[in-house]
């Protein structure tokens, strides 16, 4: 399960990063090798973290390799419930019906991941454009679908 979470985190972090290359690679195969190396590096540094807030509730957050929080949870009364929330993200995010795009009052964009019962279980970071938020949500959905199917 932890291996799957780390793989998910790595792919999400890479899909949300804004790395630009100035030079083209010679072949697609060389580009694939570079992508795999980047994913492994991010996978080692990105993580889910469970913590107890000042209010006594437990929360989880998904932290990218660069230290940015890219997904936050609601409050849970026990640590075990917060850990189940992480599993719920992996279970529910593959279904696009469980991801909702939203616009904040300040005009920035974000998405939420919902459980099957409609409860919000994760809120993304804020994005300056709707397309970036959509891309982030698609990456989370696709990666959690792979992880969920791999576990069966």
Folded structure, characterized:
It is a single chain. The protein has 152 residues and is α+β, with helices and mostly antiparallel strands. Helix content is 45%, strand content 21%. The protein has four helices and six strands; from the N terminus they run ααβββαβββα. The protein has a six-stranded antiparallel beta sheet. Strand 2 and strand 3 form a beta hairpin.
Low-pLDDT windows of residues: 12-45
Work out the strand percent: 15-25%
The number of helices is: 4
- Average predicted confidence as pLDDT: 75
Sequence of secondary-structure elements:
HHEEEHEEEH
Using only C-alpha atoms, the radius of gyration works out to 16 Å
Biggest sheet character = 6 strands, antiparallel
- What gross morphology would you assign? globular
Q: In whole angstroms, how far apart are the ends? A: 11 Å
Helical percentage: 40-55%
The number of strands is 6
**What's the arrangement of strands in the largest beta sheet?**
1-2-3-6-5-4
User: Structural class, from helix and strand content?
Assistant: alpha+beta
């Amino acid at each position: 399960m932890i291996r799957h979470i780390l793989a998910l985190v790595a792919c999400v972090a890479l899909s949300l990063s804004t790395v630009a290359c100035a030079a083209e690679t010679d072949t697609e195969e060389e580009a694939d090798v570079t992508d795999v190396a980047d994913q492994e590096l991010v996978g080692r540094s990105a993580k889910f973290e469970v913590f107890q807030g000042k209010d006594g509730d437990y929360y989880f957050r998904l932290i990218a390799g660069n230290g940015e929080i890219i997904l936050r949870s609601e409050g849970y009364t026990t640590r075990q419930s917060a850990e189940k929330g992480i599993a719920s993200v992996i279970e529910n995010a593959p279904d696009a019906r469980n991801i909702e795009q939203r616009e904040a009052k300040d005009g920035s964009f974000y998405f939420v991941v919902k459980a099957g019962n409609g409860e919000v279980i994760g809120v993304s970071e804020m994005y300056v454009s709707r397309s970036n938020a959509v891309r982030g949500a698609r990456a989370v959905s696709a990666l959690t679908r792979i992880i969920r199917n791999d576990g069966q």
